[in-house]
Structure formats: C-alpha cells, structure tokens
Amino acid sequence: MSINALMLSASRVGDSAYLTHTIELIRPLTQPGQQWLFIPYAGVSVSYDEYLTKVQTALDPLPITISSIHQFADPKQAIQDAAGILVGGGNTFQLLNELYRYDLVHLIRERVQNGMPYVGWSAGSNITGTSIRTTNDMPIVEPPSFTALGILPFQLNPHYTNYQMPGHNGETRAQRLLEFTIVDPLTPVIGIQEGSALWRKGDKLTLIGDQTAYLFHGKQQEVEITANSDLSVFLK
Length: 236
Known about the structure:
Blueprint: E1 4-8, H1 23-26, E2 34-39, H2 48-58, E3 64-68, H3 75-81, E4 84-87, H4 92-101, H5 105-113, E5 118-121, H6 123-126, E6 155-157, H7 173-183, E7 189-192, E8 196-201, E9 204-209, E10 213-217, E11 220-225
Parallel strand pairs: 1-5, 2-3, 2-4, 4-5, 6-7
Antiparallel strand pairs: 1-8, 7-10, 8-9, 10-11
C-alpha cells in the first residue's frame, strides 16, 4: 500500500501555540504548491469559517494552500481534487456522523490507500482506526456506524494520560481501555500522548515525537512503547 498518514495526538503540547509543534511533522507529507483540503466537521462550538482560518494561520509556514470542504458544493469532488487532507479535532462522533452523512468514509479510505497524504489530530486521528470505540469524546450524536477509516488496523486513543485528579473517583483512562480489551481482547489499542504521533508510510508505522505511547491488548495493559519505536508489526 502507498498510505502516507500522520496521526497526531493533539493540536498543542503544553502551552505551545496552536499546531506549532506539528509543522515539522507535517512538512514531509507536503510538496510546494499543493492544494490541501481541511475537514472541520469535528468542530461543534466554532464555525467552519473560523476553524479554517485558525488552521490556515497556524500552518502558514507549510508550502501548501488550504481550503475547507464546506466551501465546496460537491464534497466528494473536493476530496477527489485534493492533494492531501487535514482533519481537525473536536468531537469524534460529530465528525464521523458528518462523514457518513455526506457518504465520504469509503472515498477518503480509498484515496488514502492510493497514496493521498492524510493528517489528523485528536478526533481526526481517532477516525483512522478500525472504529471510534476508544475515543474520549461524549457521544453527542449517533453515527450510522462506529466503523471508521481503517487506515490503521487497530484502535487509537489520542490525548492518552492516566492521570487521576486527587479526590476524583471516576475511572482512569487505563481502566476504561481495560474494559475495551476485556470485551474485545483481539484488537490492540495504542494510546498516544500529546506531543507524539503515529506515522504510517506504506507498510511501516513509527511512533514519532518525544513521548512514550502505551499498548493495551488482551492481558497486556499499559505497556510502555518508547519514542521513535517501529510499530510496523501492528499493521500485519
């Protein structure tokens, strides 16, 4: 396969400005003069125009032009014409619901499998796994299916942290992912922390950035994955 996809955990690291830490991670997927398409469907509390401007401003150092899918009368044709796709964060359920509403899931999957670069962060990364069953988001809408793009043949959990606030008695993230692996012990979950990303290039998958990731798979719970590890075994 000629997949070239970057799954970022988040749009920020700590107090850094919006998307600044992602620029040098995204740059290798771009070529000068390309027209990329932004998909803002996960944005619920911000208008699509505002979201687009925010992304354009943040990614201005890249040698590409960015437009948004909501500016086109025919979303499918916009995807067909795009040199690459950027999918932003927000609510994963809303994002996937809109992709189904416009019948775009299969088309995006097909174009990415045929080599169109894909960059997602947060919700935009959640939808690259087999399903969105391990998202952190509230299900504010009910998509026709939880089945996602399948760019990665496993589950993702962006923004991974197992921090538990003192005095808070709810489940930790690790406990929630344990529940998933109990009901689905055959499907791996990789939790990626802010500042890190997964980069799939063909049949090679790499954890990039300076943060560790964590594997949940059957009886393997919160197994540390060191930064820059080759994770290609999870593509088989």
